[in-house]
Design goal:
Blueprint lengths: L7 H20 L5 E5 L1 H10 L2 H6 L2 E6 L7 E10 L3 H9 L7 E8 L5 H6 L3 H6 E6 L5 E4 L2 E3 L13 H22 L2 E6 L4 H21 L3 E9 L14 H8 L7 E4 L2 E4 L5 H6 L4 H17 L14 H37 L2 H13 L11 H10 L6 H14 L4 H8 L4 H9 L46 H10 L25 H5 L4 H9 L2 E7 L2 E2 H12 L6 E6 L2 E2 L1 H9 L6 H8 L18 H14 L2
Parallel strand pairs: 1-2, 1-3, 3-4, 4-5, 7-14, 8-9, 9-12, 12-14, 13-15
Antiparallel strand pairs: 6-7, 10-11
Length: about 625
């Protein structure tokens, strides 16, 4: 029986657990081990495991490389660090005067530059180092097959100086290549030709993937499609019906994914089965499923574990305690999502979200729900709605920005529609120019979306609140249409080249479609697998509503590939507007975070950036070869 293809999140968890932790412990069963991390790799570790899981595997503790640490002369230290000068200097310092550990194992989260590796070639380190690897896990999954690179600077890459931009793109290439390494694929790179960022990223990424592919002897298969935010500047402003999008629109979600409702905090956890199940659902489906799940829970054995009088053995006691723990967990999860759904339901109605979404869909499709073509009627409809949501400034601004991105508007109409804008609000409109959106740009009249022929049907008979209005989106976003074409090999190679591909593209006469979604024919699944994986990566970030639409494409069986979705960062509409608003601010700190460097402004003056001789490269290979045996 063939092994079912695992998702990116599961592969990443297994990689971290089996290759980083289990591998070292199994090779050194008689020694205690601890893990040393820096700030970046600590976040990676947190994304894929918990302290409890790590300790249960036999790891003694996890410590920060920045803090003073106790000496453990007989212990093995696993250094899981980013390949930066600061982290390598701190590792080196551990063996300068006082030897902290007996043996060490070094794992870099992604490609390590020669100068960093050369910095570690000392007698003290080589004599104690048993492992030195580029571990290739340098991204964060936010869903089973969705990842981001954790970038903070976002859109600012569009306005950076060339030397800083080059550093950022190299950092993106290094981290993006680790996704391919985890998936065990060597894809062809297809990229947005009219984007300088995409072209430069392709040039930096190609040699890394080639080296990886040759090392692992992978067959070149599948596609890595690279675009940037200029391909669709508008969709992030749109409202959406998905549960996750509404939560991030309505509720303040912290970086650690905590939300607060009426003074009580809740966490959106990957270990919450309900959250992982609900997050990409239409809000109406969430209400329906919450009702079903609650009824099933009430009828289940878990809700009846109250009789503790007949516990005749230790096994009965253990089972009772286990059931109590499971009952409490399930009960808390249901309680949390009922509370969140209740809050969203209230805010959805108060903020007239249905009316807002319908107007937005009118704007992007150019017609209303009944198919009537709209022109200046859109301005009239906006003015009417604006008068009822005047206090919802962010929502008004989002609709204005959608209009601005969609239609050629005269200066007079623009001033009438917008009214008095604050300087910060004006900067959002003007800064859209970096993404190709200008005032009175005639090309904007062509940016109408096609009608979404794959709209889901919502069964209003099953809704908790039958008085609430819901619909589905009528417009298909630019990335949604792009991925469909890419999966059918229908993208024009003049606009989206595949430079390394010399053969003939497969002729796909039909998409998989819904009829193949539930097909039991082995050849259908094999045909899809034979096309390989389609990794879609967007420079400048993706919005949650875009991810929701793309995941739904694959879920409903409209793609010929297994789809992996990624970007430099993931944001909501408010964060997108804030990035546009503050794009001219100083962002040295954010760039330092994204390139994992300590001083970006002096980066080119660093002696370690001097050109390496051939002997340096040889030392690198010898070092890796000696200590990795």
């Amino acid at each position: 029986m063939e092994e079912t293809q695992k998702d990116l999140y599961s592969l990443s968890v297994n990689k971290l657990s089996e290759d980083l932790i289990d591998g070292i412990i199994n090779e050194n069963p008689d020694s205690f081990s601890l893990i040393i991390v820096d700030s970046y790799t600590a976040k990676i570790l947190t994304n894929y495991t918990t302290m409890t899981d790590i300790l249960n595997k036999g790891i003694f503790t996890v410590e920060s490389i920045y803090k003073p640490r106790q000496q453990y002369k007989k212990y093995h230290a696993i250094y899981f660090i980013s390949p930066t000068k600061r982290s390598s200097d701190l590792l080196k310092k551990d063996f300068d005067k006082k030897i902290l550990y007996n043996k060490i194992h070094i794992f870099f989260c992604h490609r390590c530059p020669d100068e960093i590796l050369n910095n570690l070639i000392t007698k003290e380190i080589i004599s104690r180092c048993l492992t030195c690897k580029e571990f290739n896990l340098s991204y964060f999954t936010t869903s089973n097959n969705v990842f981001d690179l954790g970038f903070k600077s976002g859109l600012k890459i569009f306005k950076t100086l060339n030397n800083i931009k080059s550093n950022l793109l190299q950092s993106i290439a290094d981290r993006l290549s680790t996704v391919c390494a985890t998936l065990n694929i060597f894809p062809y790179i297809q990229y947005q030709k009219n984007s300088q960022l995409c072209c430069e990223l392709k040039e930096k990424l190609e040699p890394i993937l080639k080296k990886l592919g040759n090392l692992k002897k992978y067959e070149r298969k599948g596609i890595l499609l690279i675009t940037d935010r200029s391909f669709d500047a508008r969709t992030p402003f749109l409202h959406d019906y998905s549960y996750e999008t509404l939560i991030y629109d309505f509720l303040n979600v912290s970086e650690e994914r905590f939300i607060e409702i009426n003074g009580k905090k809740y966490k959106l956890s990957y270990r919450d089965d309900l959250w992982m199940n609900y997050k990409k659902m239409h809000i109406a489906e969430v209400f329906e499923n919450l009702s079903k799940d609650f009824d099933e829970f009430q009828k289940s054995d878990l809700s009846k574990i109250r009789d503790y009088d007949n516990l005749d053995s230790f096994e009965d006691m253990h089972n009772a305690l286990s059931n109590m723990s499971t009952y409490k967990l399930k009960s808390n999860q249901l309680s949390m999502h009922i509370k969140i759904a209740e809050e969203i339901n209230k805010l959805y109605k108060e903020n007239k979200i249905y009316d807002i979404i319908e107007l937005e869909q009118d704007i992007i499709t150019g017609e209303n729900e009944k198919g009537k073509i709209l022109n200046r009627d859109i301005f009239k409809n906006f003015t009417l709605l604006k008068s009822t949501i005047e206090n919802q400034r962010d929502d008004v601004l989002r609709i204005l920005l959608i209009l601005f991105c969609s239609m050629s508007i005269s200066e007079k109409d623009f001033n009438v529609l917008c009214g008095k804008l604050t300087p910060n609000e004006e900067s959002i409109f003007s800064n859209l120019s970096i993404l190709g959106i200008e005032k009175n740009n005639e090309n904007k009249t062509e940016r109408r979306e096609g009608i979404n022929t794959k709209r889901d049907k919502i069964n209003s008979n099953n809704l908790i609140n039958k008085k609430m209005k819901y619909s589905t989106l009528r417009g298909a976003g630019q990335f949604e249409l792009l991925i469909e074409k890419a999966s059918c090999f229908q993208l024009d190679l003049k606009d989206f080249p595949m430079d390394e591909f010399n053969g003939e593209l497969p002729k796909v006469n039909k998409k998989f479609g819904m009829k193949n979604l539930f097909s039991k024919k082995k050849e259908d699944e094999e045909e899809k697998t034979n096309f390989g994986t389609l990794v879609f990566f967007n420079i400048g970030g993706l919005c949650r509503n875009e991810i929701y639409a793309l995941e739904k494409l694959e879920k409903n069986g409209f793609l010929n590939h297994n789809l992996i979705i990624g970007s430099t960062s993931i944001f909501n509409a408010k964060e997108y507007m804030n990035q546009l608003m503050n794009i001219d601010n100083d962002f040295t700190k954010e760039i330092a975070n994204d390139t994992l460097t300590d001083d970006v402004s002096n980066n080119n003056n660093n002696i370690l950036n001097e050109s390496n001789s051939n002997s340096d490269s040889s030392r690198r290979e010898i070092f890796l070869d000696i200590i990795d045996k």
